[in-house]
Amino acid sequence: MGQADQKILPDRYQVSPRTLCFVTSDDAVLLLRGAADKRIWPNQYNGVGGHVQPHEDVRTAALREIREETGLIVDDLRLRGVVNVPLDDGDQGILIFVFTAVADNRGVQPSPEGTPEWIPLGQIDGLDLVEDLPLLLPRILAMGPDDPPFFALYTYDEDDRLSVTYGSPTA
């Protein structure tokens, strides 16, 4: 099947691929405190990541985003999960590829996206986190090196509250 045969039909669900990365070093995780002028999540803590470019695979995108937003070159990049986030219109959504990685040093630099900060694992609860991180981060940090990736669906109710559904790992 050639490229011309692989067109997306206009009535099909379409997604924007993104990466979300959690880098660890000893007993700390690297979170990005969003820049004050960001359109979404200003001053809130999130993982590192962003859009997958048309010329990239998701692994390459994750490594690029880590480097651009923190200055780090990391090791042991692992896919930990895939999250589907349908948008209001139902025709489009976001597909988030969630990774972990290990840093061999803590020398980070800020970027226009925000300021990377090493947070001790015991101090995460007191932070102003992006809304899904209180659910997502403990799950990811508890994963063993050989655990399979999780699959999740994020939806919002009529009051715009996040609901997370995880797929069965054995289904």
Keywords:
single chain, 171 residues, mainly beta, Nucleoside Triphosphate Pyrophosphohydrolase, nine-stranded mixed β-sheet, 9 strands, 13% helix, globular
Helix/strand layout:
Layout: E1 14-25, E2 28-34, E3 45-46, E4 48-51, H1 58-70, E5 75-86, E6 92-102, E7 114-120, H2 133-141, E8 150-156, E9 162-166
Parallel strand pairs: 1-6, 5-8
Antiparallel strand pairs: 1-2, 1-4, 2-3, 2-7, 5-6, 8-9
Task: Provide a concise account of the structure shown.
By secondary structure, the protein is mainly β. The chain is built from two helices and nine strands, in the order E-E-E-E-H-E-E-E-H-E-E. Strands 1, 2, 3, 4, 5, 6, 7, 8 and 9 form a nine-stranded mixed sheet that branches.
Mean pLDDT: 91
The count of helical stretches stands at: 2
Helical coverage, percent range? 10-25%
Strand fraction equals 35-45%
CATH architecture term:
Alpha-Beta Complex
CATH fold-level label: Nucleoside Triphosphate Pyrophosphohydrolase
Overall spatial form: globular
Which stretches are poorly predicted, pLDDT < 50 over at least 5 residues?
Answer: none
Q: What is the CATH class name?
A: Alpha Beta
Distance between the termini: 29 Å
How many structural units, i.e. domains? 1
Beta-strand segment tally: 9
For the largest beta-sheet, the strand count, sense and barrel status come to: 9 strands, mixed
Secondary-structure-based class equals: mainly beta
**What is the string of SSEs from the N terminus onward?**
EEEEHEEEHEE
Radius of gyration: 17 Å
CATH homologous superfamily designation: Nucleoside Triphosphate Pyrophosphohydrolase
